[in-house]
Amino acid sequence: MSKSRYPLYFFGNPQRRVFFTDFCMKLIKNKKPMPPNMVTFECDLQMTKFDIKNYLQNIYKVPVARVNTRIVYVPFDRNHKNQRVKLREDYKLAYVTLAEGQTFEFPELFPDTEEKKNEEMAEELKDKEKKAAKLLSRRGGVPNWFSI
Fold it and tell me: Given this model, what pLDDT does residue 25 score?
């Protein structure tokens, strides 16, 4: 996203034929349960409620009933030189309420079957580590490759 909102106009410049937005919005999954007709977006600080509503209605043809926004200020942190730095820029969250009869459900990107396989693999690895720890405890904590 560019920090300058609109390009400078000089007399005699050619007319801009194609209008693209300088903004982008990112769909965010809520940690807390929300109503099915409410969607959360992360957007630029310069965007107003009207910009967000027009963006969704004109570009994506999404009927919007209401837009609420809040700014998230990222706290400062200290780097290795003890200087105050921000690890991330501040951003704005937009809570968009869809028009009546419209719902949105965040897509399930990772099915449960993969999670179960990962849990089983993690349990197998834990069992192997326990067996290796038992062998090390018998030798007094000395690994197998170090033999006397």
Answer: 92
